Amino acid sequence: MRIVAVTDIHGRGTKAREFLENIKEETFDLLLIAGDLTHFRGREAAYNIIKEFINLEKPFYAVMGNCDGRDVLEMLEELNISLHNRRVEFKNVGIIGIGGSNITPFSTIWEFSEEEIWEILINNYQEGDIILSHVPPKNTKVDKTFVGTHAGSKALRRFIEENQPPLVICGHIHEAIGIDEIGRTLIVNPGPLSRGHYAIIDFNENEKKVKDITLERF
After folding, report:
1. Tens digits of residue pLDDT in 28-58
2. What is the Cα–Cα distance from 67 to 47, expressed in whole angstroms?
3. Fewer beta carbons within 10 Å, N or C terminal of the chain?
4. pLDDT value of residue 145
5. CATH class of the structural domain 2-217
6. How many Å apart are CA 134 and CA 76, to the nearest integer?
């Protein structure tokens, strides 16, 4: 199964259209969006982004980011593409999602305590599932800010250490583009789509294992 992963669009409709034009001839099975569809705006702005992905006519799911309006989750749920606090199966692969972020110094729109993040993960995860999370796990290559602070979730890291999911797709920290590992778990932050970044992931649905990840830019 081939997955295209994107994150942090931040309302850049032009970039979204450019990206979709770029991948329309690409062969893939599923597209996953790891949050921040908008930049502190609501469902109308988010739908203006989502409709571009609908026009691609490929299966996709999304979570909201910490910068998405309070009504964005409702819109995603109405379209049946939300993965926040939810599990779906696609081609025999389970995928669970968690939107928003851990608590930040900036009091953004969607923030959860570490306890809440833990509960969402525990309540939805089944062995071998992929995790789509806006926030990355703590103390990794993919949660390090420009000033050197690790801003990821402690609960997500603990969950990965204890459960070893095969793949975690995240975003949130724009500058922390990359791939990291915690045990057998591969973690990818594709980088912000608003700056032309995305990732392509080849996943073996029978073995529940990542075969390859490439970081792309257009």
Report:
1. 999 999 999 999 999 999 999 999 999 999 9
2. 15
3. C
4. 97
5. alpha beta
6. 15
Query: Considering all CA atoms of the chain, what is the largest pairwise distance in Å, rounded to the nearest integer?
Result: 42
Cα dihedral value 115, 199, 176, 53, nearest 10: -70
Name the stretches of the chain with pLDDT < 70: none
| pLDDT value of residue 188 | 99
- Domain chopping of the chain, boundaries: 2-217
Tell me which amino acid residue 173 is: I
Instruction: Say which amino acid occupies 102.
Output: N
